[in-house]
Specification:
CarD-like_regulator; five-stranded antiparallel sheet; alpha+beta; CarD-like/TRCF_RID; 5 strands; 172 residues; single chain; CarD_C
């Protein structure tokens, strides 16, 4: 059974694509509609949310362990790149950004953060741009914080620092 390859234990940090970084707080057995189900109980502190994921569905919904250092370094390197601003309608771009954030892929999330970052000397963002930027930045920061065992604001400051340095290079 392929689902058993993806096993998490209580206390593990995991990434659930639509919600970001959570922690396995317990493994439960429940009987639902006459079938016995094994469930991972995940706690997402930031959203104050608890999620139950059947163990046999964890892989198909994209639940994964925290990224490797290699992937995190690739994501941080992505932040240092030149922002790519597409000239398509905002609604289409917003959908693409949301899809990248919900994919759970760290490098894709870093691309959204990089592309929507605005330095102090740049024009103001629209409300919806700001919302998507903050969602992506928070998602990236939570995974970085869990990996480096720091709090989210510290991780977020590290990300913003990288972005400010890159902006200083590309916005001359």
């Amino acid at each position: 059974m392929a689902a058993k390859a993806l096993s998490f234990v209580v206390g593990d940090y995991v990434v659930y694509p639509k919600h970001g970084v959570g922690r396995v707080i317990e493994l439960q057995s429940q009987e639902i509609a006459g079938a016995k189900l094994e469930l991972y109980v995940l706690r997402f502190e930031k959203e104050r949310m608890t999620l139950r994921v059947p163990t046999n569905k964890a892989e198909s919904v994209g639940m994964r362990k925290l990224s490797s250092n290699v992937t995190m370094n690739e994501a941080l390197a992505t932040l240092k790149g030149k922002p790519k601003i597409k000239r398509t309608m905002w609604s289409r771009r917003a959908q693409e950004y949301e899809a990248k954030i919900n994919s759970g892929d760290l490098v894709s999330i870093a691309e959204v953060v990089r592309d929507l970052f605005r330095a102090e000397d740049q024009p103001e963002q629209s409300y919806s741009e700001r919302q998507i930027f903050e969602a992506a930045c928070s998602r990236l920061a939570r995974e970085l914080a869990a990996m480096e065992q720091v709090d989210e604001p510290t991780a977020q400051e590290k990300i913003l620092d990288i972005l400010r340095k890159a902006a200083a290079i590309y916005n001359k």
